[in-house]
Design brief:
Order of helices and strands: HHEHHEEHH
CATH class of the largest domain: Mainly Alpha
CATH topology of the largest domain: Arc Repressor Mutant, subunit A
Shape: globular
Number of strands: 3
Helix content: over 70%
Strand order of the largest sheet: 1-3-2
Low-confidence stretches: none
CATH architecture of the largest domain: Orthogonal Bundle
Number of helices: 6
Largest sheet: 3 strands, antiparallel
Strand content: 5-15%
Amino acid sequence: MDVEQAFSFWLDRTSRMMKLFASKKAYELKLGITIDQWVILAMIGARENITQSELCERSFKDKASVARISDILEKNKLIKRLRNPQNRREYQIRCTELGKAKIAALLPYVIEARKIGIAGFQEKELQILVSFLKRIYENYNNALHENG
């Protein structure tokens, strides 16, 4: 296997393992929320009045997925969708108090899961890894916008 194939293989495999691990732990701990729901809820919690389009862009999820997840979060009273007064076709989404409490309750589990993935790394190694991942991201992002 050449380096380019190994890189993409291991990047994808690692991403999938992280999601599998987190999903399994969330199920075992009966957290009452899926990983995809957590990602969207955390994004809403970090930025009040975010729009569904912004959630799609930030999470790299399609509109149907974000709408479905938002429906579930709203049904569970974790978020509230309000019409944007400047654009009536758009909703502003914000966390409810229950949603904020859910984020606070789950954050220790999320932090612990992330620590498992980086166990054995020195701080400098993590900084280098993150810089490499950012560079890879930017390479693809730039290529996407040059040609698209």
